[in-house]
Amino acid sequence: HKTTLVFVNTRRLCERLAMHLSERLGADRVTSHHGSLSREKRLEAEERLKRGELQALVATASLELGIDIGSIDLVIQVGSTRSIATLLQRVGRAGHRLGAIPKGRIFPLSRDELIECAAMLRATREGRLDRLIIPDRPLDILAQQIVAAAAGEEWDEDTLYQRMRSAYPYRDLTRKEFDDVVQMLAEGFTTRRGRRSAHIHYDGINKKLKGRRGARIAAITSGGAIPDLGDYRVILEPTETFVGTLNEDFAIESTPGDIFQLGNTSYQIVKVESGQVRVADARGQPPTLPFWLGEAPGRTNELSEEVSRLRQDIADRLDDPPAAIQWLVDTIGMNEAGARTVVEYLGATRQILGTIPTQKCLVLERFFDEAGGMQLVLHAPFGSRINRAWGLALRKRFCRSFNFELQAAATEDAIILSLGPQHSFPLEDVFQYLKPATAEHLLVQAMLDAPVFGTRWRWNATRALAVLRFRGGRKVPTPLQRMEAEDLVAAVFPDQLACPENLVGDREIPDHPLVNQTIADCLLEAMDFPGLKRVLEGMEAGQFTLIARDTTEPSPLCHEVLNARPYAFLDDAPLEERRTQAVITRRGLDVKTAEEFGKLDQSAIDLVREQAWPEPETGDELHDALLIMGAVPRVEAGTHASWKDKYDDLARAGRVTTVDDRLWVATERLPLVQAAFPGARNEPAVAPPEREAAKVWSREDAIRELVRGRLEVVGPTTANDIGEALGVPVADLDFALAALEHEGFALRGRFSSGVEGIEWCERRLLARIHRYTLDRLRKEIEPVTAADFLRFLFKWQRVATGSRAEGPEGLAAVLDLLDGYELAAGAWESEVLPARLTDYDPLWLDGLCLSGEIAWGRLTATRNAEVGTRARRSRCTGATAARSGGPAFPKSM
């Protein structure tokens, strides 16, 4: 291909990919194109592409629409576009001439993206598109338009209202909303610096509107719908040329002398000033890559439905993996390797979870991490906008139920909550934590604590001209805009900035146009609350299959949300402090290995039971054990011969007693046991210490403490076994077990093989069982020594004695091993091939080349640094051999 257009989703990846491609193709053959480059730089890149000077142009959405860029042979999309229409638009840039067919290639960056891209391809084949959503009654833009209209001429209030309603987005604009915006623009805001942002004169008697002094300038210089992100301008010295923009955080963290890349050119920082970075040409010195912070686009609802449909269609065919692979190849057009990856990925997931999560089948998965905490993952492929709303509301519900803040994240297909040691609950109950009737109120309160509200508030205040971008002919610095926006919050919505210690209950939300619009933007743009409400209503109506699973380690579908990037976080904890960092995941998992994945090792359970049961060597240690356990059945204690002698010694000292001739009890615990068993008799008679005797126990609390002591030493056990051992009716144990579960001490589940019904286990012991199970699995795949690995490499590369190949067929096999590997041209026949072939004959290589089986080429363009031209060919020039039609064989060879 003569010209290739490479689309990526982020500006940082754009610069990174352009840098790596320029190292292979030459710096003058590749450049980048994105919104942080100046308009002149972007136009220069477009003109070079038109003239055929560029072999590849790496771009973001800045080159997606409405630009004449000439003839493109191929479009490459790196990563998912998150939208069906975006993929069609980008691929449509290729073959943009009469009779030509657009040609594109997609390179997913993860297994979840592979499934998403496959769903996009099937949707395009079936003619499906995303639905375009028009913003409904944006009050911030309405305020801007009213100021602009009133600045030009005087308006009758009713006439202006009808004029605004004639626009489609404002077709349902109510008179109250219009009047509230007019009132806001007429009265402005009362802040600590006086009244401000009053842009119109309002004659309430005659119903007339006209602009105040300065309204025209404010509308012209500070208008627009695109928010100001506060990026720093990059100025090239000494020409004072505007190069582009850098993210504010990157600019502040940089120091003079740092070198970064922008537009595939290296620049050295000379000085960082307020709002701008002065740079000089770094003359090709190795740069770092800048970063830009922004909102990642959420996957469209239509594409989420396609992902769910594809998951279900593959799940229906997983009983015959070869047929499923062939179906993907035939139906979607995937290559066989990609189809096999999808089938193995979902096959291992089904083996572990018992199903494939879809939009009709939701799965809750819980597992321990290396720190002893637990991770809760909700598999729900509804897209990040719905999942973000669901995750924030769930996090708020957990906070109110357990009085602890949680770390959480939401991706396109899952939500994760990092639980602490104090969180214990029946897993299936989480599906019932949110109700459609109260979810919106809970989500709004959660959203007010999230950074999204502050950001959207500043954007809306700027668009509504409450905060001006330009004043006195100069741009208002972004920090000042933030301060002014914060002053507006304090004036309009005091509870938002109030001290949490002075707040009683939920924040009271005022009925103000900007507050209402900001909340609407958060619920409808950043998130999708109507979609979440439909899901919750469907769950309440029983329209979904709800499955809860406790696993020993995370399933493959958890990997992406465990490694989520900062834009997916629902709290303010930085990346290095995430509890998900304590989770170890496997690099790969096939279906066969996954069969034993979710089961706890019975030998690990037996080992933990053995370790948990006390083994006292002295009377004092037996006394300590009885204090911890509360009471020990005499039958169990009698099986340990050494216990009887120690018990007799303690009994003679008055430190232990036997209750109802069946329970051994420490004297200090006698009041507790007597509260649990009123009327019980003990022998020998003992007198508890005054401090213990003074404690008043209810029967429920006493039973709870006896159950606690029992769980600390027996490992996984059932309620029936606990009741039989302690002599407590099972009905009386329900309250005790529920209380222990609520405080995070005990967990319920199915742990032991061959045991019917629900078992209970102390959290610390269960974490140890999980750890021992993982240790056993890891020992089955122990790493080899470096010497063993090198011996394997020598044999694999046909270098070791006895492993060298022979004849032309052996040469073809050796070249397959080295397919796409580039090294000095003179080294192939002098060193590499003779070391791998017995009695190597150069005629063998000539025969393979003449037959067309092997082709030679160069993967990197070596350049002369002094004159900037291609270096002359020599024996040191890099060369690679590739089999015809193989993965390393480009059509240009």
Key traits:
single chain, 893 residues, alpha+beta, Rossmann fold, five-stranded parallel beta sheet, five-stranded mixed beta sheet, 43% helix, 16% strand
How would you describe this structure to a colleague?
- This protein folds into five domains: 4-107, Rossmann fold; 232-281, no CATH class; 361-466 and 480-586, no CATH class; 602-779, Arc Repressor Mutant, subunit A, CATH 1.10.10.10; 786-883, no CATH class.
- The protein has 35 helices and 34 strands.
- β4 (74-78), α3 (84-91) and β5 form a beta-alpha-beta unit.
Determine Rg (CA atoms, Å). 35 Å
Q: Count the domains.
A: 5
Number of distinct beta strands? 34
Beta fraction of the residues?
A: 15-25%
Can you count the helices? 35
Shape: globular
Q: Structural class, judged by helices and strands?
A: alpha+beta
- Please mark out the parts with pLDDT under 50 across 5 or more consecutive residues, or reply none: 864-868
Helix content: 40-55%
**Largest sheet at a glance?**
5 strands, parallel
User: What's the rounded overall pLDDT mean?
Assistant: 88
CA(first)-CA(last) distance: 11 Å
